[in-house]
Design a protein that fits this description.
With about 240 residues, this protein is mostly beta strands. It contains 2 helices and 20 strands. It has a single domain, classed as 6 Propeller (Neuraminidase), CATH 2.120.10. The strands form 6 sheets. Strands 1-5-4-3-2 form a 5-stranded antiparallel beta sheet. A 4-stranded antiparallel beta sheet has the order 7-8-10-11, with no helix packed on it. A 4-stranded antiparallel beta sheet has the order 12-13-14-15, with no helix packed on it. Strand 7 (about 90-95) and strand 8 form a beta hairpin. The structure holds 2-acetamido-2-deoxy-beta-D-glucopyranose (NAG) (3 copies). Keywords: Kelch repeat, Repeat, Signal.
Length: about 240
């Protein structure tokens, strides 16, 4: 093979690496969002105890669609195309018309809410591109809440907190396909809270909101009930709701 052909291959290889799949070594953070789409976990912003102006701008994904080693996960940097200002505690879900779009709501910008930050962003993981600026109704910005998306692409955003204000117990409902908002009926809603865990059951209940007729209720629970906590995660595995940390 001539040296020119070898060079051409090398240049192509470098180009591919430069385009998007730049390997990346993420550092510890908190207050970031993580969204699992198509075998990839997308991690956006957050901060560390050093203040972390750098971490706030980071956007990367970890590819779990290929065999991986927990000591050495493959992360790919998308920070150069990130358009979301540095923030913590946003809510994200997988949605959109292709059901492979990262839909982002709220979050608390680093600098006292003085940063121009949209309420909603959408990142199409098929084309690796952000949707043009999304303007939303005059809804309040909130953080420290958990986004739950149902089978129809509707994102349920309960409670949360706004900078220096007390918690909420309202339910915002964002249709991630046509990006229209609704407000859920607050009758019997849980008391105001943030940093809670929530998960969707296969029978269309968010623990514990019945989505079929949109009705809050308190389930009957037996056994030893664990103490209250915050900043945990809730997931459903088989018939169990698993609370971690
Ligand atoms: C999106 O994909 C999930 C599975 O990953 C599926 O359960 C859900 O019904 C899909 N939603 C839409 C709106 O197609
Ligand atoms: C968006 O879709 C929902 C059904 O999911 C419908 O009720 C609503 O009217 C639509 N809104 C717009 C602005 O198209
Ligand atoms: C809200 O839900 C309650 C209880 O289910 C019901 O009585 C009330 O009519 C609902 N309000 C609206 C505006 O739908």
């Amino acid at each position: 093979m001539s040296i020119l052909i070898v060079l051409w291959f090398l240049i192509q290889l470098l180009n591919n690496v430069n385009c998007q799949n730049v390997l990346f070594k993420p550092t510890q953070r908190y207050g970031h969002s993580s969204t699992f789409i198509d075998g990839k976990l997308y991690i956006l912003s957050g901060r560390d105890d050093a203040g972390a102006a750098r971490i706030g701008k980071e956007f990367f994904f970890i590819d779990f669609s290929v065999p991986f080693n927990t000591q050495n996960v493959l992360s790919y940097d998308l920070s150069s195309i990130n358009v979301v200002p540095s923030h913590v505690s946003a809510a994200t879900v997988k949605g959109g018309a292709n059901n492979k779009t990262l839909i982002f709501y709220g979050g608390i910008p680093y600098i006292n809410n003085k940063v121009a930050m949209s309420l909603v962003y959408a990142f199409d993981t098929q084309t690796n591109s952000w949707a043009p600026k999304i303007t939303s109704d005059n809804l309040i910005r909130k953080g420290s809440l958990t986004g739950i998306v149902d089978d129809n692409g509707k994102a349920y955003l309960f409670g949360g907190i706004f900078v220096e204000k007390t918690s909420f117990n309202d339910m915002l409902i964002l249709d991630t396909i046509n990006l229209s908002w609704k407000i859920g009926n607050s009758s019997n809603a849980p008391s105001p809270r943030n940093a809670y865990g929530a998960t969707l059951l296969s029978n269309h209940l968010i623990i514990y909101l019945d989505l079929t007729n949109y009705e809050w209720y308190i389930p009957k629970i037996s056994g030893t009930i664990p103490g209250t906590r915050y900043w945990h995660q809730a997931n459903v595995i088989g018939k169990y709701m698993v609370i971690s940390f």
